Amino acid sequence: MDSDEDFGMSSEEDVLEDSENDNESADGTDFGIDEPEPDLGYTQKEQVKKEKKTFDTTFKVYHPDDIQAQQDDLIDEVNMILDIRKEDAAILLRHFRWNKERLIEDYMDRPRKVLEDAGLGPSTTGPPKLEVIRGFMCDICCEDEPGLQSFAMKCGHRYCADCYRQYLNQKIKEEGEAARIQCPQDGCKRILDAKSLDLLVTSELQNRYHELLTRTYVEDKEQLKWCPAPDCQNAIECGIKKKDLDRVVPTVACDCKHRFCFGCGLADHQPAPCDLVKKWLKKCADDSETANWISANTKECPKCNSTIEKNGGCNHMTCRKCKHEFCWMCMGLWSEHGTSWYNCNRFEEKSGSEARDAQAKSRVSLERYLHYYNRYANHEQSAKLDKDIFTKTEKKMISLQTASGMSWIEVQYLNSASHALQTCRQTLKWTYAFAFYLKRVNLTEMFEDNQKDLEMAVEALSEMFEKPVDELANPKLKVEIMDKTSYCNKRRVILLADTADNLANGAWEWSNGH
Amino acid sequence: MASTTAQRRLLQEYRALTNNPPEGITAGPVSEDDMLYWEALIQGPEGTPFEGGIFPAELKFPKDYPLAPPTMRFLGEVWHPNVYPSGLVCISILHAPGDDPNHYEHASERWSPIQSVEKILISVMSMLAEPNDESPANVEAAKMWREQRPEYEKRVREGCRRMLGL
């Protein structure tokens, strides 16, 4: 909550900040600044009560215990309503992907069919147990010694306990299967329930089994997703549907502090929508730009089509492969150039000019891409560096406390600044991918102004943040950093709100056939 | 213990195969001393270019059979998308679950202890009739099968003749 205090403290300074920035920010970008904007992106979850932004998504974080409790509740409920065993209720719920209403409705209509489909078959009572059957021979290991323990589910496919165990071990450990482990018999659809499993396997395997079962609960429910952060066991609930993803960018924040997009699971990529992010990442990853570079910087020999990069020299080209002589400028035969040595006056010919136009176009498109890519990559890199700095911030804050005699709470502003830098850079990074796909219209210009403003503020803050400890101890710099932090966060909120609004209204115009 | 399970199970399977042999398939251990090494003869399925051919193959069983699948290798040249040039057969039933060299096979198609030698040989026979060119073991054969079917069939027929010594 300390970060909120910072904003409260610095809000009076905002007027000052605004007037300072008026000359550098382009016209039309200042609206919204005067509104009180208490929001801070990375503390969204703590601010449920506060005014909700258009780019905020409602979500809830569930811890492993919550997930288990939810499942148990649902199972208990079905167990009571339908009056069936808990294990069977669990299997039915998993079969219906935890859609309790549909399960109950279907079960009321045709109980037999529902049980059959879920792999339960006609039900009889009696807990599962190992049995010794006289004259039994296991079909897997062909063991037939008297007193051999064997097991069968209600389908009657009986195997010896060892082989059954081996089979379950394989399913759970190697294949990661839990909710839909079928009878080992080929073609038998009967599903093994938790009680039978507990009877057969070791406790270690039981734990793994229940873990996998919990996992299927989250994976089966559309509005639940695992937090993708390493070692995080939480799940997030969010009501955003797949079809809404072209209208919203549902960023959620797990209790482990990881911020990610609920739509695609990638790290926070506001303001760019998921499909655009996917396209952009693909564009950056595949070699389409290599091809673009080739077409922008090379020509092909008119005779043998070898790719040639001209790195200097005159326009009289002799292809190294086929010895064809041609003019680099007009791509025509060199022999036709007559007396105009090393010079081409045939430049304006139509056939040549078309080829040249195409080349110029791909050159422009390459430059355009590189413009956006370089800035995108730069922010990505800087965010990584800022993260390194963040790890050093802790040390910095301690040394600052000893150097200046400030208290712990008084140096927290560095922490907030480092947080702001990272979130803002993350946002800035994606604004470039976003802008790459925008058409050049008024709305785009406003977006770019917002982007420019945020970028300048972030760079300024970044610079202050890197100052040595003795300068940081200066109270004036401290106030400046706090102001800049607050300003950066505000600009980020404005930019995100603006893009999210326009996205929701479908107001953006896309270029490049997006 | 593990090897006696394999022996016992293979003996059982051998008995079932001799008492009730599936059409076009003969198989059994080469010698009574080593139950883990079998030879099989498979008839080329009718209505395919393999028709009329008899294809000898060897089956090697691991010590932990039936937990792990055997390997199967044709002993003569078999020109087929799913047979490596060495004669090794590549079909899903011969792959243990969790061991998917091509990352597309469904676990239920693969080896499990309730499969058997008989099921393997039947699968191989239907594989001869219907190659799966999605993940060919013999890329050249797969290409030929896909693009130049008459030539593929001709080559297969020639292979059959050679194998019969004609």
TrEMBL record, chain A:
EC no. given is: 2.3.2.31
| Highest taxon listed in the record's lineage | Eukaryota
Looking at the keywords, is Iron present?
no
What Gene Ontology terms for biological process does this UniProt record contain?
A: protein ubiquitination
Q: Which reaction does it catalyse?
A: [E2 ubiquitin-conjugating enzyme]-S-ubiquitinyl-L-cysteine + [acceptor protein]-L-lysine = [E2 ubiquitin-conjugating enzyme]-L-cysteine + [acceptor protein]-N(6)-ubiquitinyl-L-lysine
Keyword terms of this UniProt record: Metal-binding, Repeat, Transferase, Ubl conjugation pathway, Zinc, Zinc-finger
Q: Where is this region: Disordered?
A: 1-47
Transmembrane region(s): none
Q: What is this protein called?
A: RBR-type E3 ubiquitin transferase
- Species whose genome carries this gene: Mollisia scopiformis (Conifer needle endophyte fungus)
UniProtKB/TrEMBL annotation, chain B:
Gene Ontology CC terms, in alphabetical order: CUE1-UBC7 ubiquitin-conjugating enzyme complex; Doa10p ubiquitin ligase complex; Hrd1p ubiquitin ligase ERAD-L complex
Arranged from A to Z, the UniProt key words for this protein are: ATP-binding, Nucleotide-binding, Thioester bond, Transferase, Ubl conjugation pathway
Q: Which reaction does it catalyse?
A: S-ubiquitinyl-[E1 ubiquitin-activating enzyme]-L-cysteine + [E2 ubiquitin-conjugating enzyme]-L-cysteine = [E1 ubiquitin-activating enzyme]-L-cysteine + S-ubiquitinyl-[E2 ubiquitin-conjugating enzyme]-L-cysteine
**Out of the domains of life, which is the source?**
Eukaryota
List, in alphabetical order, the Gene Ontology terms for molecular function in this entry: ATP binding; ubiquitin conjugating enzyme activity
Which family does the entry's similarity section mention? Belongs to the ubiquitin-conjugating enzyme family.
Kindly provide the name given to this protein in its UniProt entry: Ubiquitin-conjugating enzyme E2 2
